[in-house]
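Researcher: We're reviewing a set of sequences before deciding which ones to prioritize for further study. For each one, I'd like a predicted 3D structure that I can look through quickly. This is Pyruvate dehydrogenase E1 component subunit alpha. If possible, include the structure in token form so it fits the rest of the review sheet.
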Amino acid sequence: MIIDKFNPLEDEMISILNKEGEIVREDILPEISDDKLIEMYKTMLLSRIADSKALQYQRQGRMLTYAPNKGQEAAQIGSVAAIEKEDWLVPAFRELGAWLYKGISLEKFYLYWYGNERGSEFSENEKVLPMVVPIASQLPHAVGIGMASNIKGEKDVTLAYVGDGGTSEGEFHEALNFSGVFKTPNVFVIQNNGWAISLPRQKQTASKTLAQKALSYGIPGIQVDGNDILAMYAVTKKAVERARNGEGPTLIEAVTYRLGAHTTSDDPTIYRKDEEVEEWALKDPLTRFQKYLIDKGLWSTEKDEKLREEYSDMVTKTFKKVEKIGTDTELKDIFQHTYSKMTPNLEEQYESQKKYFEGGEK
Ligand SMILES: Cc1ncc(C[n+]2csc(CCOP(=O)(O)OP(=O)(O)O)c2C)c(N)n1
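Model: Here's the predicted structure for Pyruvate dehydrogenase E1 component subunit alpha, in token form for your review sheet.
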């Protein structure tokens, strides 16, 4: 199958839908129902709109900081669409599309970025871990969930994301090593968006590809055009099947691009060239998929405009609601959900922070 046949040491990248929205690899075209294709596109569109509005809100001083997603929608939605409801999602912090497709609300997403702890609270059946900012620390957690699934004899798969920069962290290697040895049911998606803040991918590692890192852990690694939603879906679907059948983990490198800034505190014009951004804008995953759906007779520009308006309105209302809720978080909430019971170290941090807010100890 597609994953077993792939050799990450050769200069190859899996691609199904080209820039013009045409199918270039019929042989690996995944079977996806029309309804699901539309659902995937709609989530991409909602993600794009919610992302650009978040940026505006931050610029208006209505939100403290934000990490834009623009350009990475296919890498996220193509992969998450390949898991089932009972499977786990372990995001990093730039996974708005994956989050929405998993059925987690936009309100919760905005609450998180607004600084409200409720943005990190989930019900058990949502099967998602909160966003994490410490780079790659989510991966050992994802493998832990996979290990638990094996022990319990459950068939759920855990899909986790990490950035290209995250692959230089110890946790990435520890997680993949453990996962390979214990054949945990994990799928790791590297969103290689070219930059780790201002550090380009070439300076992150001397490896020719990030996918090839999988070989040293005895697991398959596969490089995919991350702006091609069909390729992302096809490959992840196979990786999920492998994981569910007890064949162990897969590492997927999604080659994509962050069209915006790293976060709203960053100015990418200082470290990257306009031409690079312009070139990637032509590979926009949203327009590419839209063209495909229109050619297939499943979508139209009229439907698109109508939905854009609807979403735009809904997103505005959602943010207004979040602003109303505000940061009603209790200070203790920030400390008490990491472990089932706060550790002495966390108790100490909480007490010291409490004093600080009360105007005492600095
Ligand atoms: C352990 C750790 N070290 C440093 C940072 C500061 N930091 C925040 S984002 C980032 C770069 C992440 O790049 P990448 O993994 O490629 O993900 P991207 O932001 O591009 O999605 C760094 C170094 C951090 N959050 N955590």
